[in-house]
Amino acid sequence: MPSRSVDEARARARAGNESHPSDRPLRQLGLFDAVCIMVGIVIGVGIYESPPRVAANVSGPSALLLVWALGGALAFIGALCYAELATAYPRSGGDYVYLTRAYGSWVGFLYGWAELLVIRTGSIAAMAFVFSDYMTRLAPLGPRSPVVYAAIIVALLSLVNVLGVREGKWTQNALTVSKVLGLSVIALIGLLSPFDGGARPASAVSSGSFALAMIFVLWTYGGWNENAYVAAEVKEPEPNIPRSLLLGTGLVTLMYLGINWVFLYGLGFDKLRSSQAAAADLLAATFGNAGVRLIVVLVAVSALGAVNGQIFTGARIGYALGQDHPVLSRLGVWSPRFGTPAWALIVQALVTLTLIIAFGSRDGFETLVKYTAAVFWFFFLLTGVSLFVLRWKDRDRTRPYSVIGYPVIPLVFCLSSAYMLYGSLAYAPVESLWGAAIVLSGLPLYWLSPRGARERRT
Fold first, then answer.
1. Per residue in 290-321, pLDDT tens?
2. How many whole angstroms separate alpha carbon 259 and alpha carbon 189?
3. Where are the beta strands (DSSP E) in 12-75?
4. Model pTM?
5. What are the structural domain ranges in the chain?
6. Residue 16: is its pLDDT beyond 80?
7. CA neighbor of 300 nearest in space, from 125, 132, 50
8. Which of 41, 69, 105, 139 is most buried (most C-beta within 10 Å)?
9. Angle (deg, nearest 10), helices 120-138 and 289-324
10. SS3 392
C-alpha cells in the first residue's frame, strides 16, 4: 500500500508538471504538432518562387518532376538519419547536441554561435522581409514599409512564443493548415484552369545546370530536420520523432510533386520556364486581379508560418548553447513563469531586429545569408558524419530507432551534403570565406568560458 501511494503521488506530480509551466522543457508537443512545425517551416515561399528557376535548368517536364522527386528522396534519407540521432539524444538543440557529443564542445559552440549570429536569425529576417514585401503590396505603410512589417511580425511572433509553448504551437498549427489548404486551392484551380498548357508539347532544352536546379530544389525542401531541435518537448519521443520526420517529409514531397505537375498542366513547360510567378500566373488566368491578390495572401501566410516555426525551433539551439557555456548562461534559462526559453527567444529576436533595421531590405539581407551558405552545408555534413562517429563513440547507447540501410543511407546523405558544400563554395568563394570568418569570430567568446565548461551529457 505505501508503494502504491508513492506511485500515485508521483503520477499526480507528473500530471501537474505537464499542465503548469516549469523551469525545464516539458513534453507538450504531440505528433500532429511536430508534423505542423516541420511542414510549416519547409513549405515557406520557396514553392512559389523556385519552380520557374528549376524548370529553367532542366531539359523538359519529366526532368522537372524527376529533380523534385530526387530532392524529396534526399530529404527522406536525411530524415532517416536524423530520426536515429534525435531518438538516441532526445534533448533540445538538435544538431548542436550531436556535434557537441561527436566532436567536442568547441564545435558545438561554433555551430550555435553561427546559428544565433547569422544563419538562424538571418533566415528569420529574410523570410520576414518576404512577408513584408507582399503585405506592402496590399497595404503600404510608407517608404520604410518592408522594415516596419518585418520588425512588427518578428517582435509579435517572438512574444507569442515567449508567452507559452501552447501559444506558439497553436499559432504554428493554424498557419500550417492554412498554407496547406492554400496550396490545395492552387492545385484545384490549376486542374480546372482553361489553359491547355499540358497539351502543348514542350520544346527541347539543352541549356541549364542540373547542379543549380538541385540547389533551388534542396533550398525549397530546407527545414525538414527542424523537429530535432524540439526533441525534448515531443510526447513519446521514441515513436513520434521518427514518425513526424518521415510523415512530414513524405507529405511535403507529395505536395511539391503535385503542385509542379499542376503548373505543368496549367501553364505548360515553356511558360513555366519563363514565368516570374507561376502561381500568380495560374490564378490570374482564372480570377484576374482577384487571383493576384489571393496569391499575395497565400504567400504572406506561408512566410508567416516559416517565420513562426523558425523562431520556435531556433530558440532551442540558443537554450542548449546557454545550458553548456557559462558565458552565454542567460540563454540557458527556461522561464518557470511561461514554460519557454524566454531569454533565448528575446535575444534571438533582438539580433533579428538588428539585422532587419541594419539591412533594410530583403535583397540586402539575402546577400548576408549567402555568406553563410557554405557554413550551413559544412555543419550539415558534420552532422551526417556524426552518426558514424557516435555509433563508434557511444557503442553501448540505446538507439530506439536505427537508420535502415546503414551505412549506405547515411553515406548518401553525407555525399549529398558534400556536393551542396562544394556547390556553395564554387558559387560564392569570397562570400564563403566571410562566412567562415563570422563563425570563427565566436572562438574568443568560447575561450572566455571556464576551462571546465561541461559538454552536454545526453
1. 777 888 888 888 889 889 999 999 999 999 99
2. 11
3. none
4. 0.84
5. 28-360
6. no
7. 132
8. 41
9. 160
10. helix
Pick the CATH number of 28-360 from 4.10.280.10, 1.20.1740.10, 1.10.390.10, 3.40.190.10: 1.20.1740.10
pLDDT the model gives residue 452:
52
Which of 358, 328, 354, 353 is closest to 341 using CA atoms? 328
**Rounded to an integer, what distance in angstroms lies between the CA atom of residue 251 and that of residue 68?**
13
For 55, half-sphere exposure in the C-beta direction (CA atoms, 13 angstrom radius) is 25
Written as nine digits, the cell of 420 is 551542396
What single letter denotes the amino acid at residue 53? R
255: which residues sit within 8 A by CB, 6+ positions away? 43, 47, 180, 183
At 195, is the pLDDT very low, low, confident or very high (cuts 50, 70, 90)?
low
Reference 304, options 38, 34, 36, 44; nearest CA is 44
Instruction: Say if residue 363 is exposed, middle or buried (CB neighbours under 10 Å; 0-12, 13-18, 19+).
Output: exposed
Q: What is the structure's pLDDT at 365?
A: 61
pLDDT digits (tens, 9 = 90+) for 106-150: 999 999 999 998 889 888 888 888 888 888 888 888 888 889 999
